[in-house]
Amino acid sequence: MVSPNPWMILPFVLLLVAMALTPLLAPNWWLRHYAKVALGLGAVTLGYYLLGLHANERVLVTAHEYVSFIALVGSLFVVSGGIHIGVKGGGTPLTNVIFLLIGAVLANVLGTTGAAMLLIRPWIRLNECRVTAHHIVFFIFIVANVGGCLTPIGDPPLFLGYLQGVPFWWVAKNCWPMWALAVGLLLAMFYAVEKINFARVPRNGKIAYGTWKFEGRANLLFLAVILGAVFAGKPVFLREALMIAAAVGSYFTTRKSVHAANHFNFHPIQEVAILFAGIFATMMPALDWLGLHAKELLGSGPSPGIFFWCTGGLSTMLDNAPTYLGFLSALFSASGAKDIAELLGQNAGSLSVLAISVGAVFFGAATYIGNGPNFMIKAIADREKIPMPGFLGFVFKFALPFLLPVLITVWLLFFRG
Question: Cα-Cα-Cα-Cα dihedral of 378, 381, 387, 388, to 10°?
């Protein structure tokens, strides 16, 4: 494993600070120069790895992970942009709760990215007359993150676990109690906030409008191609080629009226691609240092609760997929297990794998960069002129008061021992 100088974690820290504070302090400057900041800091780390450490293979692995990530996220973005779900506006608190619950279930079939990109625009239209930041944030919590905890398709960390040998149905069998509790608590919190917001809307008889309809059905075929491609591991880049082909086919076969109805453009995916290029590059020293020192940091025989909080905490700042792999590797070292079957055969090992899985998925909702769809949803909301909180506002106004109590409850009931 590569042993980087700890000081090389600094570009990653600087990028996080820039993403957190600059849009708040100098939004116009950030809009013009965010690409230079992200790619510039990424270039510093890449130069160190290629020229200083000569770690060409490590860079190639990271590049492959980035291409796979952006191919999946980008193709789902394009294909979902070709599907227009017309809704009858004026969603009530109960209607909205049912909508989010359906989204949480769909996240396990379409992935959190697919479900989020398919449903975010109908969600905004459903609440168009009174949409506020809490509508978007709870959508991020439930549909784009926590909801996708039941299958390896649901969230990238779980899919990586599947590739490492975790049985497909092990996830649903073991994660459903945490999923049900977390989704239930978040929906209850959302309903309480919604009742207050709904009471403020003037009852002028104009709340309900529009009709339910579904356009762009042909894109369901392209969506199926993308989901099938997830399991195409060989040859190299076959998976990504199929995803890109599906996106291209969708874009050129979708009627312009459907794209216009969705206000579709490439700005959100462009912003995600640039920022995450910087994140994937600069986070290499952080992940490599963690891999080398995880055992001494976690101690001897760490409890499942330690894995839950450590995996989750880093998933709020790092991409949750490589964080999952980092702590799974640390668990192998701590347990002495030779393979995933032996690890899952141990009571403590099985519970720790569960803690790593739930921590990676649930904590991904705590920041805009915790999971790929989060930033994309924010970009769409910004384009729709919805007043969204900045990086720190998201954390302090929503993640801490609403998400943190859910995470603490899950820890107390399932992982404290």
Answer: -10
Within 10 Å of residue 144's Cβ, how many Cβ atoms?
A: 30
Rounded-to-integer distance, Cα 29 and Cα 13, Å: 20
Q: How far apart are CA 68 and CA 64, in angstroms?
A: 6
Residues contacting 291, CB < 8 A, separation 6+: 1, 326, 329, 330
Residues composing the chain: 417
* Predicted local distance difference test score (pLDDT) of residue 205: 44
Cβ distance 49 to 2 under 8 Å?
Answer: yes
pLDDT at 204: 47
Q: Which residues contact 92 (CB under 8 A, 6 or more apart)?
A: 198
Token pair 């390896």 is found at 152
Q: What is the mean pLDDT of residues 65-84?
A: 85
Token pair listed for 23: 């849009």
* CB atoms inside a 10 Å sphere around CB 405: 13
3-class DSSP state for residue 18?
helix
CA distances from 278 to 35, 315, 369 (A): 9, 16, 12
Query: Is the pTM value of this prediction over 0.90?
Result: no
Residue 262: closest CA among 119, 387, 49, 111? 119
Cβ neighbours, 10 Å, residue 164 = 16
How far apart CA 181 and CA 413 sit, in angstroms, is 10
Residues 6+ apart with CB under 8 A from 409: 181, 185
Cα gap 32→51, rounded to integer Å: 30
Average pLDDT value for the chain: 86
